Amino acid sequence: MRLFNRTFLLITTFCAILFLQGCGDEKNPFQVTFNAPEPYDLSKADSSYTTEDGLKVYIIKEGVGDFKTNIKSQIAVYYTGRKIENGSIGEIFDTTYKNERTTPGILRNLTPTDKKGPSGPISPLIEGFRRALLDMREGGKRVVIIPPSLGYGDAQEGTSGYNLRNDTLRFDIELEEIL
């Protein structure tokens, strides 16, 4: 009986080692990777402004065309959200450049409140990001620095693994198209 137990243990251990080695060769389907471009250089902004409530908007490129986004717009946009940590650009927490994706994200609710969609309610964006998207032209690029009061404030901790409560946020935004 002892010989059987040892043989079983050896075979089980050997199989487990082979299985674990094989796991390292494949991509983890649950792991999120970011391939976002470098942050825009704020010193190259054409203009900038700060609102009374602390929203800072840097216009890197104005964009072209007669049409500007408004609260009813549906848009195709690239963006990367980063935390500001101790006055410096911190880690990425959200981007349209996830998992080797190269297409823009589609945003359908630039209103400050929930909106009814064909498959249920469409939640609004955080206020600072939503306001930064308004009045943009196609091809426009912006950086927005969002104070906590216009971001996630003291909201409940999210399930995405990021705690963005009371954080200052930076979004680099490029408007691809007004749909």
TrEMBL record:
Tagged with keyword Amino-acid biosynthesis: no
Keyword Cell wall biogenesis/degradation: no
Keywords: Isomerase, Rotamase, Signal
Sequence ranges assigned to domain PPIase FKBP-type in this UniProt record: 72-179
Lineage: Bacteria, Pseudomonadati, Balneolota, Balneolia, Balneolales
Pfam entry (one): FKBP_C
Entries under PANTHER family matching the protein: 39 KDA FK506-BINDING NUCLEAR PROTEIN (PTHR43811:SF19), FKBP-TYPE PEPTIDYL-PROLYL CIS-TRANS ISOMERASE FKPA (PTHR43811)
Assigned protein family: Belongs to the FKBP-type PPIase family.
Protein's recorded name: Peptidyl-prolyl cis-trans isomerase
UniProt EC number: 5.2.1.8
UniProt enzyme class: isomerase
Family annotation (SUPFAM superfamilies): FKBP-like (SSF54534)
Catalyzed reaction equations: [protein]-peptidylproline (omega=180) = [protein]-peptidylproline (omega=0)
Cross-referenced InterPro entries: PPIase_dom_sf, PPIase_FKBP_dom
Molecular function via GO: peptidyl-prolyl cis-trans isomerase activity
Signal peptide start and end residues: 1-24
